[in-house]
Amino acid sequence: MSFYRALLHLYPAFYRAEYGGELVRTFEARSRRAGGGAGRAALWLRELVDLPRSAFLVHLDVLRQDLAFALRALRRSPGFAVTAILVAALGIGANTAVFSLTDQVLLRPLPFPEPERLVQLWEVEENSCCNEVSPPNYRDWKERSHSFTALSAWHSRDANLVGAGQPFRLRGIAVGADLLPLVGVHPLRGRLFSAADERPGAPGTLVIAHGTWQRVFGGDPDVLGRTVRLDDEAYTIIGVLPPDFAFPSPRAEFWAPIRLSEDDGNDRDNNFFKVVGRLAPGVSLAAATTEMEAIGAQLEREYRDTNDQTSVAVQPLHTVNRQSRLLLAALVGASLCVLVIACINLATLLLTRALARRKELAVRAAMGAGRERVTRQLLTEALMLTLLGGGLGIAFAAALGPLLAHLVPNDMPIVARGSLDARLVGFALLVTVFTGIAFGVVPALRASGRRLEGLRERGPLGGARSAMRSLLVTAQVAGCLVLLVACGLLLRALLRVQAVDPGFRGAGVLAVQTPLPPQRYDTTAKRVAFYSRVLAETRALPGVEAAGYVTWLPLEMGGGIRPVEVPGAVVASVAHRPLASLRFVSPGYFDTMGIPLRSGRDVDSGDAFTARKVAVVSEEFVREHFPDGKPLERTFKFAGEDRTIVGVVGEVRVRGLERQSEPQVYLPYGQAVDGDIYYAPHELVLRTSRDPHSQLPAVRTIVRRADAEVPIGAAREVSDVVWNQTASRRTQVWLLGAYAGLALLLAGIGIHGLLSLAVSQRLGELGLRLAIGAGRREILKLALAHGLRVAAVGAGVGLVLAYAAARSLAGALAGVEPGDGITFVIAVGAAVLMTISGTLMPALRVLRVDAARVLMSS
Amino acid sequence: MSTRRPSAAEVAALLPLPPANFHILVALAGDELHGYAILQDVALRTGGTVQLGAGTLYRAIHRMLESGLVVESSERPDPALDDERRRYYRITPLGSAVVRAEAARLAALVGLARAKGLAPEGV
Fold first, then answer.
1. Interface test mutation site (partner B, options A25, A43, A51, max chain B beta carbons within 10 A)
2. CA–CA distance, A297 with A301 (Å, rounded to integer)
3. A52 vs B contacts (CB less than 8 Å)
4. How near does any CA of chain B get to the CA of A757, in Å?
């Protein structure tokens, strides 16, 4: 019997109170009738099914009633409903959106089988980690290691593709034959590479990305077996990879087996392999690291002149760079701030409403609904509001998705997605239910319990309640301040980076890639002929003021670094050799880019291969190597030759606006050696008085006339290249700014709500004060002072938190101090302003209080 | 509880009746019963084929109380049991109208089946 009584707890309490006794008596009577063991067992069996089932149905009945009631109640106060739903939607949407980003970048495993076993290996030189690996070192690692089921390598290998209509410039990856199986991809069509494909002299084979198949080959179903030319060599397409495959990054457009020249294959100083491995079962990252470090030490002993102080590092393949990690942390922090503020707002709204409805609720309670039913009713209402808000929040997140997808770092082997999925919706639901319960239950309990009983009590409210209110206001002010400071600091950092002079003027300059197929343009003379013809025709175009060729654009390509030998200079060790970036340029390049010529002359067409080898150097190069300031006609050894300085130009931020760059050395392209294709100029730049992109068709025609098989690669305005440098910073500031604005708005509403609540609760007291002769001005002052005091406490707490947040953001601040005074002053100002405007309306209500009416109603 | 005749629309809104509610209303037709007596009556009249669970019974009663099909009449001792006070339920005019309408609805259904030879004659 006691078990049966226990079962009755499945019913809601009001129901149990109503029917519990009857149920027990009915059961007793039945079991008396049931007689012996078998009858009794049958009865128990039936009741064990029937009772839980009916209890569940009773709960459903109640829910249905509560929902209908809640809907009616909300329809009666649409302003409240809309506000609450919007507040919930903003909080939930902001968090869901950021979760989608965090999930893609950090939480979700890489989309490969057993991704936790995938690692990348690097050379560590003199404790500076993460250099690429030289081919011979890689070969030795592969032969000597036992920690991996497979070890493979890749390097980028962009190429001109001819044979599919117009010529294309494609981003390619040269891979070891075992790389794609190691990662774990299965071809959508055809096959992957076999060992035979990478043997020297084997016919060229090619695997293409799904996007390439669609874009270049128009989705041709017979693409397998098609032969195309990559940089003038024949390749047969043997496979197409699935659309969601992105290794090493979504930018890869084709994969071909690694082919190395004799020199590249044996040079331990030429680091350009990226090495990927799959840990053998049972081998930890630490164990693999230990083994690889031992192998590194062996190689150091065996090849002293090249591998001095060279070790090995093993990292998980799923590594997120520091910048992205910081950005994510900032966004997660910001969205949590917004959520906390939104939750406080919801709690305030619900509490205010519960108090406003206390008469109605008291009536319901008096009519026998009981405290449980009223609580349950309020909770249903709260959950319904947050669920509606959650639905809207998911819509917000979906709208933000494509924007956030831009923040997925594009050097990771994942395809960024801006769409919703089950995980996101699940997360949003979790946040919603958390919000609804945490901030619906408390007001519901308080309103239905203590508050209801204390309805008749009037006058000043207890200290605990007003302390709670102050705490909530403090939290809102503090949360806002943290966001404002973080956003302000990042904005200052952005402005600082944008103000950096790149060393050239990119506005009105069009850059067009015209990569030459290396086989056909195997001598400098052939390339010079092409460049000269294209440049002459380009300069003749109407509106074109200057044109030139350069190896790579600054900012886009930071590498191409060579050691510098100045006669008489003493160098401590190989690792301390001075370095400079090498670019081959045509006459007119400096003029086109607006790089100022400080002294001497530009390269000119007389600087032929047979003539004296000359160089134009940057100011920093002069400062470093010729401190006497007289560099002209002096010589230094660079890129295998003695070069005489004939000109000095302004310094350029080759490596980027936020990075230290090596000094620059520019060589006339006519003096490049035949085989040095790597440094051959790729970029045609032209300064025009018209819209730069409007010149593109004419340039295209010129290039096609010069050689119909040379593709036009990327075409962009050089000022955009500079602008893109700050793209992720701008998105970051934009997003954080949006969140800070949201927090400010929500906190303003919340503080307004909380203080309105306080005023309405103290109406009686205020009325009394007015009646006994207190001045309205005095009371207003009192109310405002209270608001400001709380704001001050909030600002104090917020400042401490904000400084801590700023310190953790230091790495992303581009040199702006985490304690930057201006930012803090402005942020505090905004927070105080927000608090005052939130305080003002409730305080003004005090002035309109009609003392007589208030006193009469109590 | 008003004694006015329930409107057709009021009745129609409550149809069809769940089988348990039908049985309970039939049991209450003409007699005031407490819960256990209702269960006994239903079992008796159906030859033991319908054995309502107590949970089902009281949920049905709760819902029918809310929609006005039955009312609680009074609390008095159960004559079968010594001095145990039980709650008695009575059918309302709306309840009678609804159970009648439900019976008619079921009869019409049976008539349809019978026309096709799918139901025994005379039942």
1. A25
2. 6
3. 55
4. 37
**Which residues of A touch chain B, with CB atoms under 8 Å apart?**
15, 18-19, 22-23, 25-27, 29-30, 46-47, 49-55, 57-58, 61
Q: Which of A722, A725, A714, A814 is nearest to A504 (CA)?
A: A722
Q: Give the tokens for residue A201.
A: 């002299």
Q: Residue ranges of the alpha helices (H) in A689-820?
A: 696-706, 718-724, 727-761, 763-771, 776-808
Question: What amino acid occupies position A5?
Answer: R
For residues A329 and A366, which has the higher predicted lDDT (pLDDT)? A329
pLDDT in tens, B76-120: 766 665 556 788 999 999 999 999 999 999 999 998 998 888 877
- B71 burial via Cβ count (<10 Å: 0-12, 13-18, 19+): middle
SS3 track for chain B: CCCCCCCHHHHHHCCCCCHHHHHHHHHHCCCCEEHHHHHHHHHHHCCCCCCCCHHHHHHHHHHHHHCCCEEEEEEEECCCCCCCEEEEEEECHHHHHHHHHHHHHHHHHHHHHHHCCCCCCCC
pLDDT digits (tens, 9 = 90+) for A116-166: 999 999 998 876 778 889 999 999 999 999 999 999 999 988 888 988 888
For residue A517, what pLDDT band results from cuts at 50, 70 and 90?
confident
Interface test with A, best of B24, B34, B44, B58 (most A CBs within 10 A): B58
Helices (H), ranges, A258-321: 262-266, 285-302, 304-307
Choosing among B36, B63, B87, which should be mutated to test the A contact, i.e. which has the most A CBs within 10 A?
A: B36
Mean residue pLDDT across chain A: 86
Stated pTM of the model = 0.74
Contact (CB<8Å) A25/B86: yes
Which chain A residue is nearest to residue B36, measuring alpha carbons? A26
A389-to-A85, A89, A93, A118 alpha-carbon distances in Å: 4, 4, 9, 41
**Are A25 and B63 inside 8 Å of each other by CB?**
no
- How far is B122 from chain A, CA to nearest CA, in Å? 34
Whether B53 sits inside 8 A of A50 (CB atoms) is yes
Q: Which residue did the predictor score with more confidence, A614 or A167?
A: A614
Contacts of A42 in chain B (CB under 8 A): none
Count of CA atoms in the C-beta half-sphere (13 A) of A418: 12
Name the 3-class secondary structure at A815: coil
Cβ distance B54 to A51 less than 8 Å, yes or no, reads yes
Most confident of A32-36, A558-562, B67-71: B67-71
DSSP letter for A190, please.
Answer: E
The predicted pLDDT at position A132 comes to 86
Question: Do residue B54 and residue A30 have CB atoms under 8 angstroms apart?
Answer: yes
